[in-house]
Amino acid sequence: MREGRGSPHGGVFLDISWIKSKVRNAPEHIKKKLPSMYHQFKQLADIDITAEPMEVGPTTHYAMGGIRVDGDTQMSTVRGLFAAGESTAGLHGANRLGGNSLSDLLVFGKRAGEYAAKFAAGTPPVSLQPEAVDIAAKAALEPFERAMTDNSAEGPYQVQRALQEMMQELVGIVRREEEMARALDGITALKARAARVSVTGNREYNPGWHTALDLPNLLTVSEAVARSALARRESRGGHFRDDYPEKDPAYQGFNIVVAGSDTGGMAVTRASIPPMREDLKRIVEENR
């Protein structure tokens, strides 16, 4: 795909019709084993996957990393903010398969809910400063103001699409240092564009406005992903560096942490993690 030898839309063809030679009544067998995939391709593309190849492409299954939380209470380093699941650092390491998220959500979602309720019941309400609310509201409404004063301002969807395409191309499944460095330059340019987007219409049910409000968060996460991937000069699980294809044992001893810096940017550091218990270590080594 990177060499331009992919399918017409930049993916590859996946053909499972070979099962016909292995299984009696293969079409029904495929429909039973892959019902959602069969219906998806049939309804959206009029492709019968039991008889012809389907065009597919790589995408992210699960975010490998997230905000830091306490393992017992699920409270983050922001007092009163509880989180669970894909938004947190999680326990699955470099495995991005989404099926793991179900057990993650059930176990740690339950903890987050219980401890959030206890925290709310035992914590006095916080008084918000009216001026802080006014500042936040003014900033949120700026896209509407720009629509009335700047006819040349672009909409938020253009910036979102540009970010999506750039991250897919430069910080995708297979990563290289030079490409990720280019992505960081691109993110800087997109931040400037995001600060000038405009929206029209009303506040109610306005997805364009919601996208304008989301852009700073999308850009922040994209930058954190690119910077942490640059700092990982090895390949491990779903963290694949084409320029560092081998696993480096040294990376087992720390986590890569991205946080706000004193200058307003991002700082990338390493946080040591406790050694694995010997009994768990033996299990991991045996199952590699």
Which helices and strands occur, and which strands form pairs?
Blueprint: E1 12-14, H1 26-33, H2 35-45, E2 54-56, H3 101-122, H4 130-149, H5 156-170, E3 174-175, H6 177-194, H7 207-231, E4 240-241, E5 254-260, E6 266-272, H8 278-286
Parallel strand pairs: 3-4
Antiparallel strand pairs: 1-2, 5-6
Helix pairs in contact: 1-2, 5-6, 5-7, 6-7
What does it look like?
The strands form 3 sheets. The chain has a two-stranded antiparallel ribbon. It has a two-stranded parallel sheet with strand order 3-4. Helix 1 crosses helix 2, helix 5 packs antiparallel against helix 6 and helix 5 runs parallel beside helix 7. The longest helix has 25 residues. The chain is mostly helical and 288 residues long. Helix content is 44%, strand content 8%. Among the domains are: 45 residues, no CATH class; 118 residues, Up-down Bundle (Methane Monooxygenase Hydroxylase, Chain G, domain 1), CATH 1.20.58.
